[in-house]
Amino acid sequence: MKNRIAASLAGLLFCMGSAAAQATLDVDLDAPTHTIAPEIYGQFLEHVGTQPYGGIWVGPDSDIPNTDGIRDDVFDALKALDVPVVRWPGGCFADLYHWRDGIGPQADRPARVNMVWGGTPESNEFGTHEFFNFAERLGAKTYLNLNLGTGTAKEGADWLEYITAETGDRAEERRANGRDTPWTVDYLSIGNETWGCGGAITAGAYADLYAQFASFAKTAGDQPVRIISGAHDANPEYADTILEHPYIADLAEGISLHVYTLPTGNWGKKGAATGFPEAEWASTMKRTLRMADVIEEQKAILEKHDLPAETFGLYVDEWGMWVDQDEATDPPALYQQGSIRDAIVAGLNLNLFHAHADVVKMTNIAQMVNVLQAMILTDGPDMVLTPTYHVFDMYQPFMGAEALEMNLQSPDYVFGDVTVPAISASAARTEDGRIVLALVNASAHDDHLVDASAFGASKATGRILQGEEMDSHNTFDAPDRVQPAPYIVDGTADDLVLSIPARSVVVVTLD
Ligand code: AHR
Asked: Does 193 qualify as catalytic in the annotation?
């Protein structure tokens, strides 16, 4: 190997064997670019399992250190990610949520049952004020999902007035409940998965309802970006039919897309979070890489309806890993362990979102704390950061950067009947003119070299996240098993080769 890997790295590449093959990156540094919307790093907070209750909200009287009921450890960890936007309150939950249940004195709020997610108690302690104050303190934009399934256009319109009005009875009611200045609703969706949990209605029927609700969904001040609830990866035509509605395009700035990665692709037996065979590692990689085709498919639909990416966006407001819940967990809480496999999935998808940042204006990983591919897991007072958290942390320089177009020649990762490129890459120019490069090695066992000489840089400095096993993960007892480590490569302006071990994500700045 022509390059020297700095000593700080040497001890960290515990699984680095002989490199199987070399990938090559080509880049035209003068080609036009597009901005990676920071909102691509958005999060999703639905009332499911122990999110928000326990995972985010513990209440002001809790022994767990908190600020106004929000636990400090989780908040500080999220704050460090610079979360750009949070979607709330669902998901499927949104279509059974009635906002008036979640305002006013805590003691007076009705106790309901979360009928969507396992019949768990819904105390309504985490409501409108708690969410908007949480987002405000985080410095995150807000993405509100209105109830179309069991709500009315009036209920939605009233909620928006309550949140955003300066004057009038609803503003006064908000003030009486402790909030003087209005909040901002930055993004708004009406309905969720209307082909499924959101009512099982046809695309045409939903389009009519959307247009009706959206006509009255006004905020005081700046209007939110309005997002139609669209298709998932297996029913792309749903979006196509919605957009045939004659008025809908004037009542929306974008449409959503949901794409989950199930290791097996089978909703009845999705596959385990840990202890899975390599066949499920491989199928996970193959299945998650379909994201590129699904986005292209939706982009073509938008173009067919004369909705150019400059003015009408694709919002992937649910994506991530979904595995079988531990059978011992009852009721369904969607709590799952997150391993290095999840981190690889995160890196692959983020690279794809960057590559499609012309049309993808926001994404929201499902979800934030204790649900599906979470950033953070909690157990009572304990908290652990998942490998996915570390990927989001390492990728922060990409938020708002200019994506560079690259041509990548990658060796394959082959297992059984699965063949996928082993290496995935994304590069962008940050505000200070530097280039940030992300490299993901999706191979379960082959290390690779990546020739990045095309950038003309002589040094790569950043961090690496690697799993010793396919399912390496952090636990409350061993929270640092999968941790980013320093990564430095010295080369010359015409010779810079990076060693990317199997099962790793590397993010570096090039100088
Ligand atoms: O993220 C969990 C659920 O997945 C959401 O509530 C729903 O929209 C989707 O089916």
From this structure: yes
